[in-house]
Specification:
Elements (H helix, E strand, L loop, with lengths): L20 H18 L5 H15 L1 H10 L4
């Protein structure tokens, strides 16, 4: 048996969302700051998945509830 387990499904899933104008503006501002900080040319859509992953990873109540409910991704 290999030490590395089989990788999970990495097929991208496209999700469409609608945001408020204020949130759209804030996301655009964040993207501009990100691009300046890292000399990058990322788009808002490039950053949103990483933002969501970071948010979910830092939410201890979510992690606890998910573990208790044994919810699978």
């Amino acid at each position: 048996m290999l030490k590395l387990a089989k990788l999970p499904d990495r097929t991208p899933v496209k999700i469409g969302i609608t945001v408020t104008p204020d949130l759209a503006h804030a996301l655009a501002d964040y993207t501009a700051l990100y691009n300046r900080a890292y000399s990058d040319k990322a788009e808002v859509a490039d950053l949103i998945p990483a933002m969501l992953e970071s948010f979910l990873a830092s939410d201890r109540a979510f992690a606890k509830a998910r573990k208790e409910a044994e919810v699978t991704p």
